[in-house]
Design goal:
alpha/beta; Metallo-beta-lactamase, Chain A; 4 helices
């Protein structure tokens, strides 16, 4: 090969090397992005009706919140097992531990006499569980007793289950709850906050990712005093209706604003 040919090829080889390096960098970046996207899924959340949800993490840990009994119109799962169950208060449509076929840890938000709150600050495998005492009504529990907000932390996500919250939150309660990504909020009124108060509570908590309404009238629920979910949804942006009762939980935002996700109980 002559000197003239070498001089001609050298710049071309340099360009080719740069192109190859860029291609390898882009491929590595794509792989990192794919891994990051995969790792953003921390688990899934399923609504069984009323205020009952099942949190299942990516590692398989399962926590059931406010298990429901028969007679509410919702199809109960057969053979449901969990690592733990949380009970916001001791009303029959929230404390059916018998729904579970195994013997999970039972984390009750109220003391045995129902006159005080149990301070919960525990780990269920990789899930941190905390509790904050609130009330079932606007008269500091004089009408319907006490209630508990349960907080679940896993994979960098914080989920707040408000139970049968009966009032807007105080500054002290907001401070105890802290920042949240997902809020499960009652909206049906009568026995809990109504759509207007629920809107105010969501504004107070300002969840980063999702608002999921619960404890409202559906076509199968026989409790006629509750209002439907539409009152809460009216005029709100970013509403998404799911065809099923389950939603994946991702730490990545699907939209710029907080989404309201209406789950199907079926």
């Amino acid at each position: 090969m002559t000197r003239r040919v070498l001089i001609f090829l050298t710049p071309l080889l340099a360009v080719a090397a740069v192109v190859l390096a860029l291609a390898l960098a882009l491929a590595a970046g794509g792989a990192r992005d794919a891994r990051a996207a995969g790792s953003s899924i921390v688990g899934k959340l399923s609504w069984l009706g009323q205020s009952c949800f099942v949190l299942e993490t990516a590692a398989g840990t399962r926590i059931v919140m406010d298990p429901i009994p028969k007679g509410l119109g919702y199809a109960l799962p057969v053979g449901l097992k969990a690592d733990a169950v949380t009970i916001s208060h001791e009303h029959a449509d929230h404390n059916n531990v018998g729904l579970l076929v195994n013997k999970p840890r039972v984390l009750r938000g109220l003391t045995a006499d129902k006159k005080g709150w149990t301070k919960i600050d525990e780990k269920v495998k990789e899930v941190a569980v905390h509790s904050v005492g609130v009330y079932h009504d606007e008269n500091r529990g004089a009408d319907r007793g006490l209630n508990t907000v349960f907080l679940f932390e896993v994979g960098g996500m914080r989920i707040a289950h408000l139970g049968d919250l009966g009032h807007v939150l105080t500054d002290e309660q907001l401070s105890a709850i802290g920042s949240v990504d997902v809020v499960l909020v009652p909206v049906g009124g009568a026995f809990t906050i109504d759509s207007r108060q629920a809107t105010r509570v969501v504004d107070q908590l300002h969840p980063r990712l999702l608002v999921i309404p619960m404890h409202y009238k559906t076509d199968v629920l026989p409790i006629k005093e509750l209002a439907g979910v539409e009152d809460f949804l009216t005029g709100k942006p970013n509403v998404r209706r799911e065809a099923t009762n389950t939603i994946p939980l991702s730490t990545l935002k699907a939209r710029p604003g907080t989404e309201i996700v209406v789950l199907n109980y079926k």
